[in-house]
Design brief:
Elements: E1 2-8, E2 11-20, H1 23-38, E3 43-54, H2 56-71, E4 75-79, H3 83-91, E5 100-101, H4 104-113
Parallel strand pairs: 2-3, 3-4, 4-5
Antiparallel strand pairs: 1-2
Helix pairs in contact: 1-2
Length: 114
């Protein structure tokens, strides 16, 4: 997995690519989220449109990121959740924990409305 970070309006968009399975990549994402938090950037959108596969460690990364941002007074929202990942979120009941949107634009806009 790799990822890119892009700032749009009042949110930071992190686009995950490839297989999301935790490990060293998860640690790198964790560091990035903590750096954003220290900069006061706590409105994060994770774009999952380029994710091929996600396992439980990948889900754990998202939960950790969500906790980090919420503890800092922000949020972590999901965008472009593919069917196979959405079913994983439904099975684990995490679909009720994460706010999720059909597009990055909708997710970014949701911060403006809050």
């Amino acid at each position: 997995m790799n990822f890119s970070v892009d700032e749009r309006y009042n949110a930071v968009v992190i686009t995950l690519k490839g297989n999301v399975m935790g490990g060293p990549d998860g640690a790198k994402l964790h560091e990035t989220l903590h750096e954003l938090k220290e900069q006061g950037k706590t409105n994060v959108v994770v774009d999952l449109s380029k994710v091929k596969f996600m396992n439980s460690s990948g889900l754990g990364m998202l939960i950790s990121g969500l906790t980090t941002m919420r503890n800092a007074g922000g949020d972590l929202r999901l965008a472009n959740v593919a069917d196979r990942i959405q079913s994983l979120l439904v099975i684990t009941k995490l679909i009720t924990v994460f706010k999720h949107y059909d597009s990055v634009e909708e997710a970014v806009k949701s911060y403006e409305e809050a």
